[in-house]
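[Help] Beginner question about ligand-bound structures

Sorry if this is basic. My supervisor gave me a protein sequence and a SMILES string for zinc ion and asked me to "get the holo structure". I don't really know what that means in practice or what format the answer should be in. Inputs are pasted below exactly as I got them.
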Amino acid sequence: MSNAGFSSQNGAGGQAYVNGPSQSPFPMQQVSQGYSTPGQLGYHNPVPAKAPMPPGPGLYNAVPPVSSYQSGPGPHMPVRPQMGGPPPMPPGPMPPTSQNSVPLPTASTNNYYPNAQNPSPSSWNYGVRPPMGVAGTPPPQPGNHVTSTSSSPSPVPNLPPSQGFSAGPPPGPTLTPDASRPPGPPLPPASLNSWAPPGSVPPLPMNAMTPQTYQPGRPAYGPPPTAGPPPAMRPTPPPTGPPLGTATPPPPMAPQHEAGMRQTHAPTNSQDPNSFEAGDRTIPDPPSSQPGPGPAGRPMGLAYPSLPPGYQNMAQPPNAPPMHPTQPYSSGPAAYQQPSMGPAQLSPSMAAMSLQSQTPDALRVVNLLQERNLLPPTAIEAPTPCLPQDLQKVNCSPEVFRSTLTSIPQTQALLNKAKLPLGLLLHPFKDLSQLPVVTSSTIVRCRSCRTYINPFVSFLDQRRWKCNLCYRVNDVPEEFMYNPVSRCYGEPHKRPEVQNATIEFIAPSEYMLRPPQPAVYLFVLDVSHNAVQTGYIDVVCQSLLENLNLLPGDTRTKIGFITFDSTIHFYNLQEGLSQPQMLIVSDIEDIFLPTPDSLLVNFNECKELVQDLLKSLPQMFSKTMETQSALGPSLQAAFKLLSPTGGRVSVFQTQLPTLGVGALKSREDPNQRASAKDIPHLSPATDFYKKLALDCSGQQVAVDLFMLSSQYCDLASLGCISRYSAGSVHYYPSYHNQHNPAQTERFQKDLKRYLTRKIGFEAVMRIRCTKGLSIHTFHGNFFVRSTDLLSLPNVNPDAGFAVQMSIEENLVDMQVVSFQAALLYTSSKGERRIRVHTMCLPVVNSLSDIFAGADVQAITGLLASMAVDRSVTASLSDARDAMTNAVIDSLASYRTAVLTIQQPGLLSPTCLRLFPLYILALLKQIAFRTGTSTRLDDRVFAMCQLKYQPLAYLMLMIHPALYRVDDLTDEGALNVSDRTIPQPRVLQLSVEKLSREGAFLMDTGSVMYLWVGRNCNPQFLTQVLGVPSYAALPQNMTQLPELDTAESTRTRAFVGWLREQRPFYPTLHVIKDDSQLKANFMQSMVEDRTESALSYYEFLLHVQQQISK
Ligand SMILES: [Zn+2]
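Answer (accepted):
No worries, everyone starts somewhere. Holo just means with the ligand present. The predicted complex, written as structure tokens, is below.
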């Protein structure tokens, strides 16, 4: 395979981004015989070749030091005269214009084409290759497709050709705890940290041949059995005890309601007043002519709202079954033989047997129209793959790696039948409390497909291991024979690499042709009049001053600053200056760097100058009258400044850019915000930001965008600068230091996290999967550099990714398949590291097994990403229809192909029971809602978030958690570091769950609302909120007072604990009946009907009708 397919599913097609010498340190050369061509791996490009230096001295006029401006520069600032001469050529190859003319994003157009069997244009066939060149959409990007893992032997670049396999005794690998591991919790398995430092002499071959040291305890790695399938895939009986739900009686209901529901639910009742028009798969408007019998004044549906007692009072049955069975099928009594797990050796029927013999709880039939309380009382956990215990116990954490289907269908045809999407959700750089880190001169990888050795390979004997992705048999290198954990020789299967599904390697330095880059931070600040008015500059400078010493880095760390309005201001911070020196470039058409060598300075050497600048910056522009914004040229300057090294650009912007390249005009019509029709302008107005982002990506520069705006800023255009450079977008609408204190507080807290969190530079990520599976679409912020290689100039712990997959070849001979994500990055300390995650999943050959393994949250997360793409490439209504049809099609498939006994109602397997609710929540989410006033930037930002957030945070954004908090008790509380954390149950998102006597906390991920009822328990008002009465509650209350009462302590402990669960800081708003934000709170009541959207019950009826057709 060559580097010909250097294209992007992000929309940059073709050959544009050739790997020139100044392109990147990561070789694009795909070497099929990696071991013999070391020269083609690793860093090829010495830094000096990366970019020509900008014009030298003499091209600028230095202006006096900053201090001379402190009395208020504004329009009086000296301005550099226009310079003549040709502009310096931008470094690096420029992408041909054709690359940039492709509308974006194009990725998902591949996956949303009409289903051949289904005339509905809004359905899709998950994972099947799209027809080429569908009219009106860009042709699929070949670069997005991997025909098969084994056919692309593409090694992860810069990993060593392992020349050391035949070398003598190993130098002694080391295993060190991750330096970034927070203090506190004990280290990983003690043995991992208890061994000798490098240099200790491994015990030598005296043990090598002694059979007793060859892992007597673990049969898994013995020689493969001669015959017979392993007994381990046979299921154990389901847990005993209370029947898991099959006997759960239908919830009690008031008689008249029950009757009403029966009538309504009768599938033959085609005259049902709640029914929607046959043949219409789009969601109809809710019936508006009949107010229904619900309480007056509350917008309600017909049948559903009339049932409050039934819905509200149904308590969850005691000992309700957990959502997902935990380890329902442990390995049988006979010892499980791992060698036979060589997937090709097992009969696929074995796994299927495990599910067919018993009906697992995940498959228990639920009639959604009758069972109302579907939410489990606490957070929903990921389903456990149906694997033998000794595989599952070493499997990757679902927090890091998750599949929409925890049982992989044997064929694409079977997957198509299930009508569920197949894909992975990753959180690859998540902050981990325990991470084994290995330093070893030999990183063991498959010679064919370059997979890293992992817990799911099989050892044929002590000296050979079989790859679990391509099945090649590889030699065990000599060094790997020594187990640093036990300090024993002859235990390759006990090495940490084979015991941990998540592990990090420190790549030996000899594998790098270019030294790992230093941590480089450039801050680019809007200092226009508008920006100064918001007051944000003070917050940024203050936050930087407080956190400067916590910026990840080492002695090589570099830092720089640019400010801009209609001109661009650079700051000379070179050591030896008595004050920072401001250099103004007013020629924004022809950007150059005034003093290239002194604008990015060594942080440690110039810390005082940096601090001086941060202290004076807020005043420097306080009287400015400059309203223009030359954002585009400033970004070009930032790119030039960082091109030689790579690094991170943090851009703070408060308005639409108005000057120079990348200038934008408002595209939003405020009168159309509540449109029920399609939303225009979801795609960028210019390709400038995308093109620049691709240039940045090529030079290992990522751009993070902080939008602090009160008006439309065209995030759809500006966001591209971050999206394609693997940056992140942060958005603070209506930001103002004084007028919006909650937003300011969030900004401060977010900045602290942003500045101090871990960061990886010049990163790439490759995802491999077992032969037969292929990845065809990626979601997230990155650039796809080759078929399966994501370019990530920066990677941060808060970034999530998703991929869609298809089944290219039947997996008939396999019992399990594996997926491996390898993230190669440079740490802020200048170490080259590789973080590897490997997940193993069973292969099944029946639809019921597929359904039993469905992960409804992962499915929802993937569909959300797909729908964002569809909104941009097709239309919002198309995306909405596709999501609805995903529910209809999958439940229809379940009904016709899995259920053997037909019964009335809307039937779902237990594991998918929340699917319609989540999809309805998505339809009502800011990103996809219609008919509700929604600012375009709010919508676009929500779409960015849906594609970028890790699943755990995404789910709160889609379906917030609601708790009653005025009666918190310690019953069932958690105890976390000596704090008692109450655990109130999660309530349905319906006003029926609210009561005027209570107080309710809604957690939407980024915002929390505390709704206080008019007749709220006085105890709560005085003991928690610190007010004597409801009337005394102030508007805009955003803090819980620290009162010395048990109630206050409990409530604050709970809110604090929720906040700790995520990286960024959710603000809290106390809501009264007359609060402005009450509308936001009510709009999150997903189950209720609104003027423009169906209630949950109405939605179920719609789904049922479509299925019954
Ligand atoms: Zn392999």
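A couple of things worth pointing out: The pocket of zinc ion is lined by residues 446, 448-449, 451, 467, 469-470, 472 (CB under 6 Å). The longest helix spans residues 876-898. Feel free to follow up in the thread.
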